Amino acid sequence: MGYAVMLLIVFLCHEVSSISILPHKHQTISLLKFKNTLTIDPSADTYYCPKPYPKTSSWNMSRDCCSWDGVVCDDITGHVIELDLSCSNLTGTIDSNSSLFQLSHLQKLDLSSNNFSNSHISPEFGKFSSLKHLHLSYSYFSGQIPSEISHLSKLHSLRLSTIYDGKKLRLTTHDFKWLLQNLTQLRELDLSGINISSTIPLNFSSHLTTLKLKFTGLYGIIPESIFHLPNLETLDLSSNYELGGYFPKTKWNSSASLIELDLSLVNFSCNLLESLGYHLTSLRSLDLAYCNLRGPIPESLSNLTRIEYLYLYR
Ligand SMILES: *[C@@H]1O[C@H](CO)[C@@H](O)[C@H](O)[C@H]1NC(C)=O
Ligand SMILES: *[C@@H]1O[C@H](CO)[C@@H](O)[C@H](O)[C@H]1NC(C)=O
Ligand SMILES: *[C@@H]1O[C@H](CO)[C@@H](O)[C@H](O)[C@H]1NC(C)=O
Ligand SMILES: *[C@@H]1O[C@H](CO)[C@@H](O)[C@H](O)[C@H]1NC(C)=O
Ligand SMILES: *[C@@H]1O[C@H](CO)[C@@H](O)[C@H](O)[C@H]1NC(C)=O
Ligand SMILES: *[C@@H]1O[C@H](CO)[C@@H](O)[C@H](O)[C@H]1NC(C)=O
Ligand SMILES: *[C@@H]1O[C@H](CO)[C@@H](O)[C@H](O)[C@H]1NC(C)=O
Ligand SMILES: *[C@@H]1O[C@H](CO)[C@@H](O)[C@H](O)[C@H]1NC(C)=O
Ligand SMILES: *[C@@H]1O[C@H](CO)[C@@H](O)[C@H](O)[C@H]1NC(C)=O
Ligand SMILES: *[C@@H]1O[C@H](CO)[C@@H](O)[C@H](O)[C@H]1NC(C)=O
């Protein structure tokens, strides 16, 4: 009897300890496997990095993975919830079978400013169902952005911007539309440099504070609804040579929040409206160069008292 109880206690202790240790062990192994599929490039292109250094170099079994550089775990569950390997001199590819995709509890993943050797963005990225922040900018991905990205309906920020190197990353018109329609929590969207070659759809998250679609091959007319996004602080639609637009005639709804407006090289072919100066009172940067604007510069621009950068040439 006593023997049986003791066995039971031993069994229970064993179960409990293996339950609490297992997630850590799995995560540690997944992270080390991921590390080992990539190499450190001593001459990495780190133009966008203030202080590049290889975060994975110090990863080893002597410490719990939750204390590794770039890794953050949930205090209660112990799951890895953040992985920041931006500017880490990483080079190699992230295949669909990568152990990275076993970290299913990730809420933030930043792999920006590395060199993934022009490989594709795996559709597996769309399975991180808890993800709020996905940052893959300037990392030499190429090919079509998988439509599975629009499954990440909890995303607050999505940064996929790329170096303007011949538009190797593409997003289909269809996927662009779904992305905007499905990601209703987005605060920040940066797709600059990606070949979208589409008109701008009408559905935008009303939470958006930053929208950057510079040099994406967008065409057609800018929907006026963009100027009325109530929380918008930064809008960059510049360098889309086949895009045209009109300034809203009535009050802009985003006018009080807008801090940075870059519409350079967008074809407005109209007069610069007097209303601009009355409404956009928070503006610190206004770029309307090469906009094909006509007529006199309105006196109201003198009301933009916070302005630090004002480009109206051509
Ligand atoms: C990472 O890349 C930078 C820039 O090319 C370089 O200065 C640095 O030495 C590299 N670090 C390592 C550990 O290779
Ligand atoms: C393991 O990591 C620790 C802390 O990052 C470091 O001090 C130690 O040198 C590493 N050990 C090996 C064998 O790399
Ligand atoms: C993962 O896939 C790549 C290419 O598809 C292959 O070369 C590699 O051996 C695979 N790795 C594992 C661990 O299965
Ligand atoms: C990226 O890595 C590939 C090899 O994987 C190399 O050919 C290429 O020059 C690297 N690009 C940069 C910008 O370092
Ligand atoms: C939109 O998101 C949901 C999950 O939140 C997903 O089931 C659905 O397939 C997504 N739609 C598209 C077109 O990606
Ligand atoms: C963008 O992609 C389309 C095909 O999807 C292609 O026809 C076009 O040439 C690309 N634009 C640029 C600038 O590469
Ligand atoms: C915008 O999205 C809503 C659902 O979120 C949909 O009912 C509506 O038709 C969409 N509008 C456009 C123009 O796509
Ligand atoms: C501006 O905002 C007000 C109040 O939030 C709203 O009723 C109105 O429809 C908005 N105007 C436009 C053009 O979006
Ligand atoms: C700009 O738009 C005007 C009017 O829509 C058009 O006549 C003109 O050709 C456009 N310019 C360019 C460079 O596309
Ligand atoms: C804006 O500027 C105009 C002319 O420069 C001036 O008459 C007007 O009072 C100003 N409006 C505001 C709201 O500051």
TrEMBL record:
GO biological process, any: defense response to fungus
Protein name per its UniProtKB record: Leucine-rich repeat-containing N-terminal plant-type domain-containing protein
Membrane topology qualifier: Single-pass type I membrane protein
Annotated Gene3D superfamilies: Ribonuclease Inhibitor (3.80.10.10)
Subcellular localization(s) per the UniProt record: Membrane
Signal peptide from the UniProt entry: 1-18
PANTHER family found in the cross-reference section: HCR2-0B, LEUCINE-RICH REPEAT RECEPTOR PROTEIN KINASE EMS1-LIKE-RELATED
SUPFAM superfamilies hit by this protein: L domain-like
Entry keyword annotation includes Disulfide bond: no
Main location: membrane
Pfam families: LRR_1, LRR_8, LRRNT_2
Keywords: Glycoprotein, Leucine-rich repeat, Membrane, Repeat, Signal, Transmembrane, Transmembrane helix
InterPro entries the UniProt entry points to: Leu-rich_rpt, LRR_dom_sf, LRR_N_plant-typ, RLP23-like
Domain annotation Leucine-rich repeat-containing N-terminal plant-type: ranges: 25-74
Cellular component terms (Gene Ontology): membrane
